[in-house]
Structure formats: structure tokens, C-alpha cells
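Listing S7. Sequence submitted for prediction.
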Amino acid sequence: MITSVLELEPVAAPQPKRANLLLHCGSSAVSRGELAVSRTPLPTATHKPVSHMKVLQTVEKALLQQCITITGQAHGLSHDGARYFGLLEIQSPQNADMHWVVGIRNSHDKRFAAGIVAGAQVLVCDNLCFSGEILLARKHTGHIHYDLPRIAEQAVDGLRGFWGQHNVRIARYREQRLTDTRAHDLVVRSVDAGVMANSYLPKVLQEWREPSHDAFAPRNVWALQNAYTEVFKGRVDLLPERTMRLHQLLDAHVGLN
């Protein structure tokens, strides 16, 4: 699958490493300026579209109010500008392995509600994963323009808690060793759990058996998670649901839930 790679635009002091937003085939990386002038459909009696830029700015304001610093950003549009996915890199406690990120999405074609989700990016490979439920989800119906700031503030208020839980998750994943037999069983079960389609099975297994990155050579649950996220690169539109379902499966295996 062809993908395009969008470098995050630094919004603070430059960092040694910048996260990337991998866009699936048919998507386009755009700047903030291009996002600001993207077309928003006219409202109808039941559908009240909110511009992609307003969703982004509402989330940024809510982050600022919580004293959460944004250190980088990337934006992409697809389906003739009807669908938006953005990525904000967040200043996080010193972590040699990961950066925190916030994923933002919006659609004008009723494909999904405006939303944000907490995530993390693995620095060695630029793999992205999202954790927990989508923290903001508001359909484009009446009063969304008034409700969005309040909902965004409530959502952002829970971000640190989700990232704290994710730290615990990753520590447990690294501690839990996996045999090939158990890993293969989890991969098969992940299809039943809706993590991926059958066609992904050989790709994930190949990445487990021969990791693309030396950091995932240890045979543990952390390496298996990154086998998935390495394969999932290029479909950022599907990534939040995929990685949340994956975490449910892996959390159960390591006894977290």
C-alpha cells in the first residue's frame, strides 16, 4: 500500500526527533494554512458540520488551559477534504522510548463524530498506538458549536490519566514473555476480536518472527504489539479503533483488566 509521510511541524523549541503522521493511500498531508481554508459544507436541518480547523483549535485551547504543551503537529485530509485526522505531539515526562500524542479527527460525510484520543508514538520506529476510549465524540447535530468547547475540556482533563495507565500497560507488556505458540494464538484471536482482517495474519506473524527493529527482538508482549503497529502503518484513519481493540486483547492476556 502506498503511503505518504508528513513531518510534524514544530511549534516550540526543535526536538531531536519528530513524530510522523502516516497517511493511507488517497490522503493528503496539509499545512495548518491549507486546513484553515478547506471547505466546510453548508448546514442542514439535522447536520451541522464544524470546520476541521475549529475542531483543532478547540482541542488546542483545551490543552493550553490544562498547561499541556504541544511540541509538534501534523494534519491530513482525505475523501476530497471531507475527513480530517490530526496529530499533536505533547511534551511528556522524560521517556527514552515514547512521545505522547493526541489524535484528532473530524468528518463532514458523517463517517465518524468529531473526536480526540490519547496515544503514544514509539520513537525507534514511529509506530503509533492509541489507548482507552475516544475521549471526545460529538456528532454534528444541533448545538455542536456550543457544546464542543465544554466537551473538549472534559476530554483533555482525562488525558494524563490515560497516559499514566498506558505507562503501566507498557511496563507489563515488557515483563510478559511470549512463546511462538502463544503469540500465534493471540494473533489468530485478534482477528476474532476485530483488530484486523484475515489478510493481515501473515504480515503480523512475519513481523513477530523477524522484527524490522532490533528493539523488538525480545520475545514479549511489547514486541507483539509493535508487530501489529508496524503492519498497521499507513491506515491512520483506522488506527484508533484497531489499537484500542488490540489493547483489550493484550491487556486481558497480561492480567490488566
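Caption to Listing S7: primary sequence and predicted C-alpha cells for the chain studied. The chain has eight helices and ten strands. Confidence is low (pLDDT under 50) at residues 1-8, 10-19.
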